[in-house]
Amino acid sequence: MVRALDADNGITVASTDIQRRKVVLAPETVDIPTYCDCGRMGQVPLSGQAHRKGVITVARTAPQETQVRIRIDYWTVYHWKNDEGGVVRAETIPCVSNGRFEHQLHKRVRSYLAP
Predict the structure, then answer these.
(1) For residue 95, which of 38, 43, 46, 106 is within the disulfide window of CB 3.0 to 4.6 Å?
(2) Structural domain tally of the chain?
(3) Which domain range does residue 7 map to?
């Protein structure tokens, strides 16, 4: 798994735990509409930047079968402003992945491992 991720320059591995078969991806900042949906404030969809972190786990499910689980979390910080434009309050808002990054990652891993 680590070699498959190292083969791609767009993914940075923060840490690995071979015993637990876990790879932690380095946190990144990404565009909201490209990778996730963070909801709306009133009638306006949230846009801008979101934070992304991820964990990939590998589990052996049978002698000839391996399960790769990709968990990616997104969130953004929304700043409530007063009439003068000063920040009054900041709120962390969880976002929902659109699956694009996970699909790309799964495709890369499969192509690396394919015979």
Answers:
(1) 38
(2) 1
(3) 2-113
